């Protein structure tokens, strides 16, 4: 698996954090035959759901050409990723960057063993996605009533009803559905979000048929403490194997939050555990140390997933160069 990059340790070298999370410290020698690999404090394998082509690009003000999006996905497909979120079947009125969803979906090269989910807000979006060739979809809810109304124009309860329609139709067509819970660690309108509310929404999504629930720190206000409390609440309602995290780096907390989630979930997992993480590309901070750390974590997560770069250059570096050329503005990596 390798050790945590030095840039990550530097960003997380607060004394209290090192005491609570000793696995961030000095590298532990590889386990001997028969010795449990959990002694390293890290999972044996990290499953990455790459959401960069959708979540990483959707907020770019300058439209990224369709052929660039397709090329990004094709490059990602060659790395060994098991899941790449391709696009979003939402109205182009609300998300202009995703207006070419049909063209992107139909233009990518599909590799055996790779899933290509797409985001679908409602039944219409679901049917449009299936018509374009989608074989897996995601629905996105929120743990905040205010955010739900602002983001998808309906209450949490109304959104659940819409998702149930999507999941029911998907089940009839043997289409897997993944669920998102936004504002799991804070809301721009309501502030703090109770862990119990996140757990409630997560349970309802899982109970209706979502095989995996991605818990999102949508505005990046989470801390290791709030991440731990939230996960502990959710773990009481849905299986550990169905939990993923989706962290934004708005206030420089993504690294600490992701590593905290690894530890919290790992403590409750059996040997051979899999940690689930969404990985994304987007604009980020200007701090050079944080940029280095984010790139290091990106490469570390990929390496921990037994992935390989094609043509000697990672898709992360490639798309950052492409977007920077289009927008003439610097971009960096954030963890989603």
From TrEMBL:
Occurrences of domain Pyruvate carboxyltransferase (ranges): 46-311
The record's section on Gene3D superfamilies has: Aldolase class I
Q: Name one GO cellular component term.
A: endoplasmic reticulum
Catalyses which reaction?
(3S)-3-hydroxy-3-methylglutaryl-CoA = acetoacetate + acetyl-CoA
Matches recorded under SUPFAM superfamilies: Aldolase
CDD domains, per the entry:
DRE_TIM_HMGL
> Which keywords are on file for this protein?
Lyase, Metal-binding
Q: What is its EC number?
A: 4.1.3.4
- Pathway assignment: Metabolic intermediate metabolism; (S)-3-hydroxy-3-methylglutaryl-CoA degradation; acetoacetate from (S)-3-hydroxy-3-methylglutaryl-CoA: step 1/1
Report the GO molecular function annotations: hydroxymethylglutaryl-CoA lyase activity; metal ion binding
According to the record, the segments passing through the membrane are none
The protein's matches in Pfam families, at most eight in alphabetical order, are given as:
HMGL-like
Q: Per the UniProt entry, what are the Gene Ontology biological process annotations, in alphabetical order?
A: ketone body biosynthetic process; L-leucine catabolic process
> Which EC class is the enzyme in?
lyase
Annotated signal peptide: none
The cross-references to NCBIfam families, in alphabetical order and at most eight, read: PRK05692.1 (NF004283)
Similarity remark: Belongs to the HMG-CoA lyase family.
- PANTHER family cross-referenced by the UniProt entry: 3-HYDROXY-3-METHYLGLUTARYL-COA LYASE, CYTOPLASMIC, HYDROXYMETHYLGLUTARYL-COA LYASE
Name recorded for this polypeptide: hydroxymethylglutaryl-CoA lyase
